Amino acid sequence: MRPLQADVHQHLYTPGPKRILTLDGGGIRGVISLQILKKVESLLQQRHGAQMRLCDYFDLIAGTSTGAIIAAGLAIGMRVDEIDSLYRKLGAQVFKQQFFRRGLLRAKFSSAALEAELERQFSDISLGSKQVKTGLAIVLKRLDTGSPWVVYNAPTGKYFSKRPGKKGVANKDFLLRDLIRASAAAPTYFEPEALAIAESVSGAFVDGGVSPHNNPALQTFLLATLSGYGLQWSSGADQLFLVSVGTGTSEVELNTQEVMNQSAATLGVRSLVTLMNDTSSLNEMILQSISDSPTARQIDRVVGEMRSDQLAGKPLLSYLRYDARLDCKWLREHLAMQYNQNQIDALESLSNANNIQELAEIGRSCGDNLVKASHFSRSFDVSSSRLTETVAV
User: Fold this and answer.
1) What is the DSSP letter of 249?
2) Which helix (H) or strand (E) holds 18?
3) Tell me, what DSSP letter sits at residue 379?
Protein backbone atom coordinates (compact mmCIF):
# COMPACT_ATOMS: atom_id res chain seq x y z
CA MET A 1 0.00 0.00 0.00
CA ARG A 2 1.21 3.53 -0.67
CA PRO A 3 -0.21 7.03 -0.24
CA LEU A 4 -1.92 8.48 -3.29
CA GLN A 5 -2.11 12.23 -3.50
CA ALA A 6 -4.59 12.89 -6.26
CA ASP A 7 -5.81 12.05 -9.72
CA VAL A 8 -5.00 14.19 -12.76
CA HIS A 9 -8.06 16.42 -12.27
CA GLN A 10 -7.11 17.19 -8.67
CA HIS A 11 -3.50 17.91 -9.67
CA LEU A 12 -4.50 20.26 -12.46
CA TYR A 13 -7.63 21.99 -11.22
CA THR A 14 -7.82 22.16 -7.44
CA PRO A 15 -6.90 25.55 -5.92
CA GLY A 16 -3.68 26.15 -4.05
CA PRO A 17 0.05 26.24 -4.80
CA LYS A 18 1.18 24.23 -7.81
CA ARG A 19 4.42 22.30 -8.37
CA ILE A 20 6.09 21.68 -11.76
CA LEU A 21 9.00 19.40 -12.73
CA THR A 22 10.72 19.77 -16.12
CA LEU A 23 13.34 17.46 -17.64
CA ASP A 24 15.80 18.34 -20.40
CA GLY A 25 16.78 16.28 -23.41
CA GLY A 26 20.29 14.89 -23.64
CA GLY A 27 20.42 11.26 -24.76
CA ILE A 28 22.27 8.85 -22.50
CA ARG A 29 23.18 11.78 -20.25
CA GLY A 30 19.65 11.57 -18.86
CA VAL A 31 21.26 9.30 -16.27
CA ILE A 32 22.60 12.52 -14.67
CA SER A 33 19.03 13.79 -14.28
CA LEU A 34 17.98 10.52 -12.67
CA GLN A 35 20.61 10.73 -9.93
CA ILE A 36 19.54 14.30 -9.15
CA LEU A 37 15.92 13.14 -9.04
CA LYS A 38 16.84 10.38 -6.60
CA LYS A 39 17.96 13.06 -4.17
CA VAL A 40 14.79 15.10 -4.74
CA GLU A 41 12.66 11.98 -4.22
CA SER A 42 14.57 11.13 -1.03
CA LEU A 43 14.08 14.62 0.43
CA LEU A 44 10.36 14.55 -0.31
CA GLN A 45 10.02 11.07 1.19
CA GLN A 46 11.70 12.27 4.39
CA ARG A 47 9.09 15.00 4.57
CA HIS A 48 5.97 13.16 3.38
CA GLY A 49 6.62 9.46 3.99
CA ALA A 50 8.74 6.72 2.46
CA GLN A 51 6.13 5.68 -0.09
CA MET A 52 5.77 9.10 -1.75
CA ARG A 53 6.58 9.21 -5.44
CA LEU A 54 7.26 12.27 -7.54
CA CYS A 55 3.88 11.96 -9.26
CA ASP A 56 2.31 12.50 -5.82
CA TYR A 57 4.19 15.77 -5.29
CA PHE A 58 4.38 17.41 -8.72
CA ASP A 59 1.17 18.59 -10.38
CA LEU A 60 2.75 18.76 -13.84
CA ILE A 61 5.80 16.90 -15.19
CA ALA A 62 7.21 17.85 -18.60
CA GLY A 63 10.02 16.35 -20.63
CA THR A 64 11.82 16.61 -23.96
CA SER A 65 13.45 13.67 -25.72
CA THR A 66 15.29 11.62 -23.09
CA GLY A 67 13.45 13.77 -20.53
CA ALA A 68 10.16 12.58 -22.04
CA ILE A 69 11.03 8.99 -21.12
CA ILE A 70 11.70 10.03 -17.53
CA ALA A 71 8.66 12.31 -17.34
CA ALA A 72 6.29 9.63 -18.62
CA GLY A 73 7.72 7.04 -16.23
CA LEU A 74 7.31 9.35 -13.26
CA ALA A 75 3.80 10.34 -14.35
CA ILE A 76 2.59 6.72 -14.31
CA GLY A 77 3.92 6.28 -10.79
CA MET A 78 7.35 4.73 -11.29
CA ARG A 79 10.02 5.26 -8.66
CA VAL A 80 13.22 6.94 -9.82
CA ASP A 81 15.18 3.72 -9.18
CA GLU A 82 12.87 1.87 -11.55
CA ILE A 83 13.43 4.40 -14.32
CA ASP A 84 17.17 4.31 -13.67
CA SER A 85 17.15 0.54 -14.25
CA LEU A 86 15.15 1.06 -17.44
CA TYR A 87 17.71 3.63 -18.61
CA ARG A 88 20.66 1.36 -18.12
CA LYS A 89 18.86 -1.38 -20.03
CA LEU A 90 17.96 1.00 -22.85
CA GLY A 91 21.52 2.29 -23.04
CA ALA A 92 22.93 -1.20 -23.53
CA GLN A 93 20.27 -2.26 -26.04
CA VAL A 94 19.60 0.88 -28.05
CA PHE A 95 22.96 2.59 -28.55
CA LYS A 96 24.67 -0.20 -30.46
CA GLN A 97 26.71 1.18 -33.34
CA GLN A 98 26.46 -0.86 -36.53
CA PHE A 99 29.06 -0.74 -39.26
CA PHE A 100 26.58 0.17 -42.01
CA ARG A 101 24.97 2.93 -39.94
CA ARG A 102 27.09 6.08 -39.80
CA GLY A 103 24.40 8.77 -39.51
CA LEU A 104 24.96 10.09 -43.01
CA LEU A 105 22.71 8.04 -45.30
CA ARG A 106 20.97 6.18 -42.49
CA ALA A 107 20.36 6.91 -38.82
CA LYS A 108 23.16 5.70 -36.53
CA PHE A 109 20.90 3.46 -34.48
CA SER A 110 17.97 1.18 -35.13
CA SER A 111 14.82 2.24 -33.30
CA ALA A 112 13.61 -1.36 -32.94
CA ALA A 113 15.10 -1.93 -29.49
CA LEU A 114 13.82 1.44 -28.24
CA GLU A 115 10.33 0.77 -29.56
CA ALA A 116 10.25 -2.73 -28.06
CA GLU A 117 11.27 -1.50 -24.62
CA LEU A 118 8.84 1.42 -24.71
CA GLU A 119 6.05 -0.97 -25.64
CA ARG A 120 7.01 -3.30 -22.80
CA GLN A 121 7.15 -0.47 -20.27
CA PHE A 122 4.20 1.66 -21.37
CA SER A 123 2.07 -0.93 -23.19
CA ASP A 124 -1.03 0.77 -24.60
CA ILE A 125 -1.28 3.54 -22.01
CA SER A 126 -2.67 6.64 -23.67
CA LEU A 127 -2.04 10.23 -22.62
CA GLY A 128 -5.61 10.47 -21.33
CA SER A 129 -5.49 7.18 -19.42
CA LYS A 130 -6.19 7.02 -15.69
CA GLN A 131 -2.85 5.25 -15.39
CA VAL A 132 -1.27 8.66 -15.86
CA LYS A 133 -1.45 9.94 -12.31
CA THR A 134 -0.50 13.60 -12.70
CA GLY A 135 -0.17 16.33 -15.32
CA LEU A 136 2.15 15.29 -18.15
CA ALA A 137 3.55 17.26 -21.10
CA ILE A 138 5.80 15.90 -23.84
CA VAL A 139 7.69 18.10 -26.32
CA LEU A 140 8.21 16.96 -29.91
CA LYS A 141 8.91 18.64 -33.24
CA ARG A 142 6.76 18.20 -36.33
CA LEU A 143 9.41 18.63 -38.98
CA ASP A 144 7.18 18.56 -42.06
CA THR A 145 5.51 21.78 -40.88
CA GLY A 146 8.42 23.07 -38.78
CA SER A 147 6.29 23.44 -35.65
CA PRO A 148 7.12 22.42 -32.07
CA TRP A 149 4.32 20.46 -30.39
CA VAL A 150 3.69 20.37 -26.66
CA VAL A 151 1.23 17.53 -26.11
CA TYR A 152 -0.29 17.48 -22.63
CA ASN A 153 -3.10 15.81 -20.70
CA ALA A 154 -5.21 18.73 -19.46
CA PRO A 155 -8.89 18.09 -20.35
CA THR A 156 -9.34 21.85 -20.84
CA GLY A 157 -6.62 21.90 -23.50
CA LYS A 158 -7.91 22.78 -26.96
CA TYR A 159 -6.88 19.51 -28.61
CA PHE A 160 -7.22 17.11 -25.66
CA SER A 161 -10.57 15.71 -26.87
CA LYS A 162 -11.86 15.21 -30.38
CA ARG A 163 -13.49 18.42 -31.61
CA PRO A 164 -16.94 18.28 -33.21
CA GLY A 165 -16.71 18.32 -36.97
CA LYS A 166 -12.90 17.95 -36.95
CA LYS A 167 -10.87 14.97 -38.15
CA GLY A 168 -7.84 15.42 -35.91
CA VAL A 169 -6.70 12.76 -33.45
CA ALA A 170 -7.45 13.83 -29.87
CA ASN A 171 -4.33 14.34 -27.75
CA LYS A 172 -5.78 12.07 -25.08
CA ASP A 173 -5.73 9.16 -27.55
CA PHE A 174 -2.01 9.33 -28.38
CA LEU A 175 -0.11 6.40 -26.86
CA LEU A 176 2.66 7.44 -24.49
CA ARG A 177 5.13 5.14 -26.23
CA ASP A 178 4.48 6.80 -29.59
CA LEU A 179 4.86 10.30 -28.17
CA ILE A 180 8.09 9.34 -26.42
CA ARG A 181 9.48 7.67 -29.54
CA ALA A 182 8.72 10.82 -31.55
CA SER A 183 10.15 13.14 -28.90
CA ALA A 184 13.39 11.12 -28.83
CA ALA A 185 13.84 10.83 -32.62
CA ALA A 186 17.07 12.82 -32.70
CA PRO A 187 18.16 13.51 -36.30
CA THR A 188 21.08 11.29 -37.42
CA TYR A 189 20.58 9.11 -34.31
CA PHE A 190 17.10 7.70 -35.07
CA GLU A 191 14.70 7.78 -37.98
CA PRO A 192 11.81 10.27 -37.76
CA GLU A 193 8.53 8.99 -36.32
CA ALA A 194 5.32 9.17 -38.35
CA LEU A 195 2.29 9.81 -36.15
CA ALA A 196 -1.29 9.70 -37.38
CA ILE A 197 -2.69 13.13 -36.53
CA ALA A 198 -5.97 12.99 -38.44
CA GLU A 199 -7.91 10.69 -40.74
CA SER A 200 -5.50 9.65 -43.51
CA VAL A 201 -2.99 12.29 -42.37
CA SER A 202 0.37 11.67 -40.68
CA GLY A 203 3.00 14.07 -39.43
CA ALA A 204 6.77 13.51 -39.51
CA PHE A 205 8.16 14.08 -36.01
CA VAL A 206 11.70 14.41 -34.71
CA ASP A 207 13.34 15.07 -31.39
CA GLY A 208 11.76 17.86 -29.35
CA GLY A 209 15.26 19.18 -28.74
CA VAL A 210 15.28 20.47 -32.33
CA SER A 211 13.24 23.41 -31.05
CA PRO A 212 13.68 26.11 -28.42
CA HIS A 213 12.44 23.61 -25.82
CA ASN A 214 15.21 21.04 -25.29
CA ASN A 215 15.11 22.67 -21.86
CA PRO A 216 11.30 22.77 -21.53
CA ALA A 217 11.15 24.85 -18.33
CA LEU A 218 10.09 28.21 -19.79
CA GLN A 219 7.58 26.62 -22.16
CA THR A 220 6.06 24.66 -19.28
CA PHE A 221 5.74 27.83 -17.18
CA LEU A 222 3.82 29.36 -20.09
CA LEU A 223 1.74 26.20 -20.46
CA ALA A 224 0.73 26.47 -16.82
CA THR A 225 -0.15 30.16 -16.85
CA LEU A 226 -1.30 31.37 -20.29
CA SER A 227 -5.05 31.26 -20.84
CA GLY A 228 -4.82 29.58 -24.24
CA TYR A 229 -3.46 26.38 -22.73
CA GLY A 230 -6.44 26.00 -20.43
CA LEU A 231 -4.79 25.72 -17.00
CA GLN A 232 -4.33 29.36 -15.96
CA TRP A 233 -2.54 28.62 -12.71
CA SER A 234 -1.88 31.58 -10.46
CA SER A 235 1.60 33.05 -10.56
CA GLY A 236 3.63 34.24 -7.60
CA ALA A 237 6.59 32.99 -5.59
CA ASP A 238 4.21 31.37 -3.10
CA GLN A 239 1.86 29.98 -5.76
CA LEU A 240 4.03 28.36 -8.42
CA PHE A 241 7.12 26.21 -7.88
CA LEU A 242 9.18 24.99 -10.85
CA VAL A 243 12.06 22.51 -10.59
CA SER A 244 14.13 22.18 -13.78
CA VAL A 245 16.67 19.34 -14.15
CA GLY A 246 19.36 19.18 -16.84
CA THR A 247 21.44 16.41 -18.40
CA GLY A 248 24.84 18.03 -18.14
CA THR A 249 25.84 21.15 -20.06
CA SER A 250 28.98 21.10 -22.16
CA GLU A 251 30.51 24.21 -23.66
CA VAL A 252 33.49 23.28 -25.76
CA GLU A 253 35.86 26.12 -26.57
CA LEU A 254 37.85 25.86 -29.78
CA ASN A 255 40.64 28.06 -31.01
CA THR A 256 40.00 30.21 -34.04
CA GLN A 257 42.04 28.11 -36.44
CA GLU A 258 40.25 24.90 -35.43
CA VAL A 259 36.93 26.48 -36.35
CA MET A 260 38.23 27.88 -39.61
CA ASN A 261 39.58 24.46 -40.67
CA GLN A 262 36.48 22.40 -39.83
CA SER A 263 34.44 20.71 -42.55
CA ALA A 264 31.03 22.09 -43.44
CA ALA A 265 29.36 19.03 -41.83
CA THR A 266 31.31 19.45 -38.59
CA LEU A 267 30.52 23.16 -38.49
CA GLY A 268 26.84 22.39 -38.97
CA VAL A 269 26.74 19.91 -36.09
CA ARG A 270 28.80 22.18 -33.82
CA SER A 271 26.54 25.12 -34.60
CA LEU A 272 23.43 23.10 -33.75
CA VAL A 273 24.93 22.05 -30.41
CA THR A 274 25.82 25.62 -29.51
CA LEU A 275 22.34 26.78 -30.55
CA MET A 276 20.77 24.25 -28.16
CA ASN A 277 23.04 25.49 -25.37
CA ASP A 278 22.13 29.09 -26.18
CA THR A 279 18.39 28.41 -26.01
CA SER A 280 18.81 26.64 -22.67
CA SER A 281 20.76 29.59 -21.29
CA LEU A 282 18.09 31.97 -22.56
CA ASN A 283 15.48 29.82 -20.79
CA GLU A 284 17.44 30.14 -17.55
CA MET A 285 18.04 33.85 -18.04
CA ILE A 286 14.35 34.63 -18.49
CA LEU A 287 13.23 32.40 -15.62
CA GLN A 288 15.84 33.83 -13.25
CA SER A 289 14.71 37.34 -14.18
CA ILE A 290 11.08 36.65 -13.18
CA SER A 291 11.54 34.33 -10.21
CA ASP A 292 12.77 33.82 -6.69
CA SER A 293 15.62 31.37 -7.25
CA PRO A 294 18.14 30.19 -4.64
CA THR A 295 19.98 28.25 -7.35
CA ALA A 296 20.43 31.23 -9.72
CA ARG A 297 23.74 30.95 -11.58
CA GLN A 298 25.88 33.46 -13.43
CA ILE A 299 24.45 33.54 -16.95
CA ASP A 300 27.39 35.51 -18.31
CA ARG A 301 29.85 38.15 -17.15
CA VAL A 302 27.51 40.98 -18.11
CA VAL A 303 24.19 40.15 -16.42
CA GLY A 304 25.59 37.86 -13.72
CA GLU A 305 23.00 36.04 -11.59
CA MET A 306 20.40 38.84 -11.91
CA ARG A 307 19.38 38.51 -8.26
CA SER A 308 18.36 42.19 -8.20
CA ASP A 309 16.35 41.95 -11.42
CA GLN A 310 12.60 41.35 -11.42
CA LEU A 311 11.18 42.08 -14.86
CA ALA A 312 7.60 41.68 -13.63
CA GLY A 313 8.17 43.86 -10.57
CA LYS A 314 7.82 40.86 -8.27
CA PRO A 315 8.63 37.14 -8.60
CA LEU A 316 6.14 35.21 -10.72
CA LEU A 317 7.34 31.84 -9.43
CA SER A 318 9.84 30.04 -7.24
CA TYR A 319 12.42 28.38 -9.48
CA LEU A 320 15.17 25.81 -9.05
CA ARG A 321 17.63 24.69 -11.71
CA TYR A 322 19.81 21.63 -11.11
CA ASP A 323 22.42 20.64 -13.68
CA ALA A 324 26.03 19.52 -14.02
CA ARG A 325 28.49 21.45 -16.12
CA LEU A 326 30.81 19.11 -17.96
CA ASP A 327 33.78 21.35 -17.35
CA CYS A 328 36.98 20.47 -15.50
CA LYS A 329 36.99 23.62 -13.36
CA TRP A 330 33.29 23.48 -12.48
CA LEU A 331 33.41 19.81 -11.49
CA ARG A 332 36.47 20.44 -9.34
CA GLU A 333 35.08 23.52 -7.60
CA HIS A 334 31.48 22.40 -7.10
CA LEU A 335 31.71 18.62 -6.79
CA ALA A 336 35.38 18.06 -5.82
CA MET A 337 35.71 15.72 -8.82
CA GLN A 338 38.91 15.60 -10.85
CA TYR A 339 38.72 15.26 -14.64
CA ASN A 340 41.05 16.10 -17.48
CA GLN A 341 39.84 17.54 -20.78
CA ASN A 342 40.09 14.23 -22.66
CA GLN A 343 37.78 12.61 -20.11
CA ILE A 344 35.33 15.49 -20.38
CA ASP A 345 35.35 15.26 -24.17
CA ALA A 346 34.41 11.57 -23.92
CA LEU A 347 31.56 12.26 -21.49
CA GLU A 348 29.93 14.78 -23.81
CA SER A 349 28.61 12.01 -26.05
CA LEU A 350 24.82 11.64 -26.14
CA SER A 351 24.97 7.99 -27.14
CA ASN A 352 27.96 6.23 -25.55
CA ALA A 353 26.49 3.69 -23.14
CA ASN A 354 29.98 3.04 -21.76
CA ASN A 355 29.70 6.41 -20.02
CA ILE A 356 26.66 5.50 -17.93
CA GLN A 357 28.47 4.69 -14.71
CA GLU A 358 30.69 7.78 -14.88
CA LEU A 359 27.72 10.02 -15.68
CA ALA A 360 25.80 8.46 -12.79
CA GLU A 361 28.64 9.35 -10.41
CA ILE A 362 28.55 12.96 -11.58
CA GLY A 363 24.77 13.06 -11.20
CA ARG A 364 24.91 11.52 -7.76
CA SER A 365 27.47 14.10 -6.64
CA CYS A 366 25.24 16.86 -8.07
CA GLY A 367 22.35 15.56 -5.99
CA ASP A 368 24.43 15.37 -2.84
CA ASN A 369 26.05 18.79 -3.26
CA LEU A 370 23.44 20.92 -5.02
CA VAL A 371 20.00 19.72 -3.90
CA LYS A 372 19.08 21.15 -0.50
CA ALA A 373 16.01 20.52 1.66
CA SER A 374 15.83 24.29 2.23
CA HIS A 375 15.16 24.77 -1.50
CA PHE A 376 11.78 23.06 -1.09
CA SER A 377 9.68 25.57 0.78
CA ARG A 378 7.21 24.22 3.32
CA SER A 379 4.59 26.38 1.62
CA PHE A 380 4.66 23.88 -1.26
CA ASP A 381 4.35 20.77 0.90
CA VAL A 382 1.55 18.43 -0.02
CA SER A 383 -1.28 18.89 2.47
CA SER A 384 -2.09 15.89 4.64
CA SER A 385 -5.70 15.95 3.47
CA ARG A 386 -4.49 14.99 -0.02
CA LEU A 387 -2.41 12.09 1.22
CA THR A 388 -5.10 10.07 2.95
CA GLU A 389 -6.27 7.76 0.18
CA THR A 390 -4.35 4.49 -0.32
CA VAL A 391 -3.88 2.25 -3.29
CA ALA A 392 -2.48 -1.26 -3.57
CA VAL A 393 0.59 -1.76 -5.76
Assistant:
1) B
2) strand 18-23
3) G
Per-residue pLDDT of the chain (393 residues; tens, 9 = 90+): 444 557 999 999 999 999 999 999 998 999 999 999 999 999 999 999 999 999 999 999 999 999 999 999 999 999 999 999 988 888 777 776 543 444 444 567 777 888 898 999 999 999 999 999 999 999 999 999 999 999 999 999 999 999 888 889 999 999 999 999 999 888 878 888 899 999 889 999 999 999 999 999 999 999 999 999 999 999 999 999 999 999 999 876 778 888 888 888 677 767 777 888 899 999 999 999 999 999 999 998 899 999 889 999 999 999 999 999 999 999 999 999 999 999 999 998 888 889 999 999 999 999 999 999 999 999 999 976 555 544 433
DSSP letter for each residue of 323-372: --B--HHHHHHHH-----HHHHHHHT-SS-GGGHHHHHHHHHHHHHHH--
Q: Judging by beta carbons within 10 Å of its beta carbon (0-12, 13-18, 19+), is residue 135 exposed, middle or buried?
A: buried
Residue 317 backbone dihedrals phi, psi, to 5 degrees: -165, 165
Backbone CA torsion sign across 292, 295, 300, 301? positive
Nearest to 8 by CA among 168, 157, 123, 226: 157
- Tell me how far CA of residue 131 lies from CA of 72, 81, 145, 220, 240, in angstroms: 11, 19, 32, 22, 25
Distance CA 100, CA 106 (A): 8
CA angle, residues 275, 215, 13, in degrees to nearest 5: 150
CB 33 within 8 A of CB 245: yes
DSSP alpha helices (H): ranges in the chain? 8-13, 30-48, 54-57, 66-75, 80-94, 112-122, 176-183, 217-225, 256-261, 264-289, 328-335, 341-347, 356-370
Burial (CB < 10 A; 0-12, 13-18, 19+), residue 278, is: exposed
Beta bridge partners of 203: 195
pTM: 0.93
